[in-house]
Amino acid sequence: MIGKISGRIDYRAADHVLIDVRGVGYIVHVSDRTLAGLPGVGEACALYTELLVREDLLQLFGFPTLLEKEWHRLLMTVQGVGAKAAMAILGALGAEGAARAIMLGDARAIQAAPGIGPKIAQRVVLELKSKAPGVMAMGAALMSEPLVDTHVEAAPAPAAKPAKAAPQPGPSRAAYSADALSALVNLGYGQGDAAQAVAEVAGSTPEADTATLIRQALKLLMPRT
User: SUPFAM superfamilies attached here (predicted)?
Assistant: First the structure.
């Protein structure tokens, strides 16, 4: 599996670039947004990649961050959304815009991507609404260096202390709020505004999980954007 490519750009096309890596050229398909952010021919670049393998086809898709790569994977889990359709959505909205549209149930924003009709856009929103918060909460770690695992150490704690399972509701609520706050900050909201919105939702809806906190907090934050 080819997960990352670093080299020099030999050629730029409408939907892909040719990257020379020590004499070997790799054709990497990218979104409009990613292409616009890449340097010119002859300059160095690096992209995280996803290799699509089919019976008669091998295609590399490139992303500027691991967060965008994870969103591409998530979008492809929706029936009717292939690799190029997922790239079109990311090209039109970016990872943050796609996350915001899904959590707010804004199918029209998804439909703004080239080739995405109303039925597919609605399906994306419905199928990913419960899955999106997981990727959003990982945003800070995925935007940093990819080889450093910094977000997978908290899970074993309950198994080590089974006797303390009873107080779990308290820490769970705090964890939901922390994850929601992290997701909102990753979407570009200020720490203070995001924290205030999450606290307001958590106060009025104590049973809210991460997805609910994000969704309701986004509704409070929308007038401020």
Answer: DNA helicase RuvA subunit, C-terminal domain, Nucleic acid-binding proteins, RuvA domain 2-like
> In whole angstroms, how far apart are CA 189 and each of 109, 112, 130, 212?
19, 23, 21, 17
Would residue 147 count as lying in a domain?
Answer: no
For 77-128, how does the pLDDT look when each residue is reduced to its tens digit (9 = 90+)? 999 999 999 999 999 999 889 998 999 999 999 999 999 999 999 999 999 9
Please check whether residue 38 is in contact with residue 26, taking contact to mean a CB–CB distance below 8 angstroms: no
Write out the residue range of the structural domain in which residue 181 sits: 168-224
Helix, strand or coil for residue 129? coil
Q: What is the CA radius of gyration of the chain?
A: 19
Give the predicted TM-score (pTM) of the model. 0.67
* Count of structural domains within the chain: 3
Query: What SS3 state is found at 167?
Result: coil
Burial call 157-169: b when 16+ CB within 10 Å, e when fewer = eeeeeeeeeeeee
Neighbours of 4 (CB within 10 A): 14
Of 54, 57, 36, nearest in space to 45 by CA? 36
The CATH number of the domain where 107 resides is what? 1.10.150.20
